[in-house]
Amino acid sequence: MEDIKLNRTVSKILAAGIYTTIFLYGIGILLLLINNKPHTFSSKSLEDIIMSFLSFNTESFLYAGTITLILTPIFRVFVSVIFFLKSGDKKFFYITLLVAIILLLSIFFGIFFSIKLG
Amino acid sequence: MFVDLILLFVIAIIAGLLGSLVGIGGGIIIVPALSLIYRVPIHNAIAASLISVIATSIAGAHKYVEQEITNVKLGMFLEVPTTLGALIGAFLALILHGWLLSVIFGLLVFIMAIYSYLTREHDDKIEFNSEIDPNNKLESFLGLRDSYFDAALNKKVDYAVHKPLLGSLISLLAGIGSGLLGIGGGIIKVSAMNSLMKIPMKVSVATSKFMIGVTAAASSTLYFLSGAIDPYYVAPVALGTMAGATIGSSIMNRFKSKFIKLLFTVVAGYLSIRMILKGLSDGLGITLF
Questions:
Q1: Tens digit of each residue's pLDDT (9 = 90 or more) over A27-44
Q2: Of A4, A91, B262, B276, which sits 20 to 30 A from B228 (CA to CA)?
Q3: Torsion angle of alpha carbons B171, B172, B174, B175, nearest 10°?
Q4: Beta carbons of A38 and B94 less than 8 Å apart
Q5: Domain around A17
Q6: In chain A, what residues touch B44 (CB-CB under 8 Å)?
C-alpha cells in the first residue's frame, strides 16, 4: 500500500516536471522562431547564465526549462527521502539519503570547481 | 535558423522514439547527430544529450511508474552507484580532449551494439525465480520481490531481485559511461538487470528509465555549471526526444525484445563507426574513408 502511494507521488512529480518544462521550452522556441535570428554555438559561463536568466528574454525561458528538467529528478529523490522517513522504512531512507547526498555533491562541485572545457 | 530548429526537432523525435524502445535516453543518436551534422563540440553535444536524456527518462518513466511496471525501490537502490558513477564520468569528460572523447564514445557504443546483437535471444530463455536467495546477504537484506502485468504475454509475472551487489557494480560503470558520454547508460543497466539480476526485460527497461533521469541530473549539473549547455540547441533536442519517448513508451509493450535489440545493433553500430572516424580525423589527422 505504501509502495503504491510512493509510486503515485513520484509519478505526479515527474509529470509536473515535464509539463512545466514543455511550457517553458515551448514559449522559448516560439520566441526563437518569431525573432528568427541566426545563432552560433557558444559555451556559457555561470555569470552568462545568471545574467541572461535575469534579463527576462528568450534565453531566460530556455534556461528556466533546462533548470526545471535538471531539478525534477533531484526533487523526486528528496521527496522520496522524506517519504521513507515518514513511513519508517529505515533501509530505504538511508539508501535515498545517500543518493540525495551524491546529488548535492554534484551541485557543490559544479559551483566551486569551475572546470575548463577540454 | 527555422530549418535548423525543425530538423533538430525531427532528429530528436527519432532518437527519443528509438531510445524509449530500447531503454536508452536517445543519447547514442543525439551526440553523433549534434557532433557530425551540426559540428557542435563534443563536450557540448554530450551536455545537450544529457538534458534530453533527463527529458526522455522523465517522459517515459512517469508512464511506466503509473502502469506499475517500474520497480521504484530497486531503482532507488541502484541510483546510489549510478549517480556516483555519473559524477566521476562527468569529471573525466571535462578533463579529456574532444577527439579522444569521440573515439571513446564510438568504441563503447560499438561494444554495446555487439553485446546487444549477441544477447538478442536472451530474454525468452530467462527463468524468473521469485524466491530470494537466503545465502546472499545483500539480496535478503533488500528483500525485493514484485510482480507486473505483461500485456504481450497477457499474464502476471512474479520475480525477485537477485545479485544486487553485482548489479550495483555494473550500475556504477553505467553511471561513469553516462556522465562521460552523455548516453544515459540504459542499455548497460537493462542488460545487467535482465541477464544478471534475473529481472524481466520490461521491468528492467522501465526501472532503468526511471534511474536514468537521476543519473543524468547528477552529471548534467556539472556540465551546466561549467558552461557546457547552450539552451538554443538543448530546447528543441529535449522537446523532440520527449515527444519521441512518449510515443515509444506507449507502443513498447507490443514489441518482442529481439526486434528491439536488432534495431539497436544496426543504428548504434553505424553511429559508433562514424564517431570513431571523426575522432581519429580531428585528433590525429587520420582519414580512413
A1: 998 888 887 766 666 666
A2: B276
A3: 120
A4: no
A5: 2-112
A6: 41, 43, 117
- List the end-to-end C-alpha distance of chain B, in Å, as a whole number: 31
Q: Total structural domains in chain A? A: 1
Nearest CA in chain A to B225: A110
Residue A118 domain-assigned? no
Q: Which residue has the cell 548497460?
A: B188
Q: Is residue A117 part of a domain?
A: no
* pTM of the predicted protein model: 0.86
Within 10 A of B200 (CB to CB), how many other CB atoms are there? 23
B80 in a structural domain: yes
Cell of B95: 578533463
Provide the β-strand partners of residue B160.
B145
Q: Which domain holds residue B205?
A: 2-284
Q: Give the nearest chain A residue to B38 (CA atoms).
A: A41
Count: domains in chain B: 1
User: Is the residue at A37 inside a domain?
Assistant: yes
Take residue A50 and report the three cell numbers written for it: 545568471
Q: Does a structural domain hold residue B289? A: no
Q: List, as ranges, residues 61-90 from A with C-beta within 8 Å of B.
A: 62-63, 65-66, 69-74, 76-77, 80
At B179-208, the pLDDT tens digits run: 998 887 777 888 888 888 888 888 888 898
